[in-house]
Amino acid sequence: MPKFTIHIEDTGEQYSCTDTRSVLEGMEALGKKGIPVGCRQGGCGVCKVQILEGEYSKRVMSRAHISAEEEACGCVLSCRIKPSSDLRLKVLGAMKKNVCRPKADTLSPTPHESIR
Ligand code: FES
To answer: What's the rounded Cα separation, in Å, for the pair 38 and 116?
Structure first.
């Protein structure tokens, strides 16, 4: 089964993904924390990305999340596409802040409320 390299433009990270897995499933295999994974069926829109380079096969995506114009520009739901070549992508929408979030140990501690 062919294996392709998915390059995330925003973070410079890359990972391998076979043509039998969705790009989102491959991304989950990265082991990163905080990547929002929703319905995995094209219905919630949290996994929206823009493919900058490469070929992929796609399944039906809701127009509520991907307009015809966006689709023409390479915007897709990563749970609905499978790579058929190496891909270079940019994370969009709700997913971006999680993918680009600094590592947990660089975040400020959360203030605690006192209990009376
Ligand atoms: S995870 Fe819901 S649209 Fe992709």
So the answer is: 38
Q: What is the mean pLDDT of residues 19-37?
A: 76
Dihedral sign, CA of 73, 50, 59, 65?
negative
66-81 confidence digits (pLDDT tens): 999 999 999 999 999 9
Q: Is residue 64 part of a domain?
A: yes
For residue 79 and ligand 1, the question of a CB distance below 6 A is answered with: yes
How many folded domains does the chain comprise? 1
- This prediction's pTM: 0.78
CATH classification at residue 24 = 3.10.20.30
Q: Is 47 in the pocket of ligand 1 (CB under 6 A)?
A: yes
Residue 13 included in any domain: yes
**Which ligand 1 atom sits nearest the alpha carbon of residue 77?**
4
